[in-house]
Design a protein that fits this description.
Layout: H1 4-7, H2 9-28, H3 34-58, H4 66-85, H5 91-115, H6 123-142, H7 148-203
Length: 204
């Protein structure tokens, strides 16, 4: 099985850095309005979604996880566009949209972790990231009327934690993909040796 994880570990590294940058900006920025929050997160969702979508299509034939990755990327892009086109959207609506996105994104990450557990080591980090995402989504659903300051703080904290987890995951994926490549190369060498031995035996 091939997965987008083993093909593009650095994509997860860059996405993790994007999460961390967004979280830091949200923490250090002054008091913002719901419209500003919508624009910030819209840009984040759109960029992250486009980036994920491009790399999903680049390895479409080789990726067994393509539909899950495509759905997550497409939803991110659609939500980003909706928020960009409606900057005057209410805080309640923003909270609900983000809640559903976090829950879906978390479920996808957990599902992918289960699929690739034989390909990489440390899939628990991906499960942890998915769990954090789902928990945040549930919190937002339970408290959609949360004050803007509380919402900003929650999103900033989540973004930094998720970003760090994704960075760790990227290096786990890189290590796992190298292990797989070494095993494949070793198997090819064994096959080549067996073929040469068979040919020599046939000539003798």
């Amino acid at each position: 099985m091939k997965s987008l994880f083993t093909l593009n570990w650095w994509v997860w590294l860059l996405r993790g850095l994007l999460f961390v940058v967004f979280g830091i900006i949200a923490f250090v920025s002054p008091v913002v309005t719901a419209a500003t929050l919508a624009i910030w997160f819209a840009a984040f969702l759109f960029i992250d979604g486009v980036f994920a979508l491009i790399h999903t299509f680049r390895h479409w034939k080789d990726n067994d996880d393509k539909w899950l990755m495509f759905a997550e990327a497409a939803i991110s892009i659609v939500l980003g566009i909706l928020l960009i086109r409606n900057p005057s959207i209410t805080l309640l609506y923003v909270s609900l949209m983000l809640a559903f996105w976090f829950i879906y994104s978390g479920v996808v990450k957990i599902g992918l972790a289960i699929q690739v557990r034989k390909e990489i080591k440390g899939e628990g980090w991906l499960i942890a990231g998915g769990a954090v995402s789902v928990i945040l989504g549930i919190v937002l659903l339970a408290r959609p009327d949360m004050a803007i300051a509380g919402l900003i703080g929650l999103l900033a904290f989540f973004a930094i934690v998720m970003g760090i987890l994704m960075i760790v995951i990227s290096f786990k994926i890189r290590k796992g993909s190298k292990w797989i490549e070494n095993k494949v190369d070793h198997a090819r060498e064994k096959i080549e040796d067996a073929r040469e031995a068979f040919e020599q035996r046939g000539q003798g």
